[in-house]
């Protein structure tokens, strides 16, 4: 994803208009439009404020997709909260295109069946299914080569 696409997506994710973003950064709406169209790039001095307003990191805006970092923040005294959508944007996008209810029913049925058949706990069942999905992914990846 190019920088302009990242700016546009982040702006839309927090429900800001180009005018509102422009006002926050003391630039014109046309400037925001040029950034989002990759016709211009934000001045270096504007990038930290842009990232702050858009609630993203400077790294997210500036780095290419291959080097995006996962932001880690403290969730509780014994755990961390990872924002996987920064690394895998599909995780914030799929719910608008995939029939989630259908897959939820399928996965719930698989989980219940495995728990009953093998007397696994819910956590163990989910780990086993995750492992099976990953192995299926690897097999399909080999087939594509």
UniProtKB/TrEMBL annotation:
Domain HTH cro/C1-type stretches: 7-61
Entries under CDD domains matching the protein: HTH_XRE
UniProt xrefs under Pfam families: HTH_19
Gene Ontology MF term list: DNA binding
Keywords: DNA-binding
Coiled-coil annotated residue ranges, if any: none
Keyword presence, ATP-binding: no
Entry-linked PROSITE patterns: HTH_CROC1
UniProt-listed Gene3D superfamilies: lambda repressor-like DNA-binding domains
Name of the protein in question: XRE family transcriptional regulator
């Amino acid at each position: 994803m190019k920088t302009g696409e990242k700016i546009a997506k982040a702006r839309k994710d927090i429900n800001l208009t180009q005018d509102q973003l422009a006002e926050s950064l003391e630039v014109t709406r046309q400037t925001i439009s040029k950034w989002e169209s990759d016709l211009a790039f934000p001045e270096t001095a504007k990038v930290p404020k842009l990232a702050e307003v858009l609630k993203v990191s400077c790294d997210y805006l500036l780095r290419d997709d291959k080097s995006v970092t996962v932001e880690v923040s403290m969730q509780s005294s014994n755990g961390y909260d990872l924002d996987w959508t920064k690394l895998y944007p599909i995780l914030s996008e799929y719910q608008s295109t995939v029939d989630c209810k259908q897959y939820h029913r399928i996965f719930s049925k698989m989980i219940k069946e495995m728990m009953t058949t093998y007397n696994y706990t819910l956590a163990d069942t989910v780990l086993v299914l995750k492992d099976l999905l990953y192995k299926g992914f690897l097999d399909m990846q080999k087939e594509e080569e």
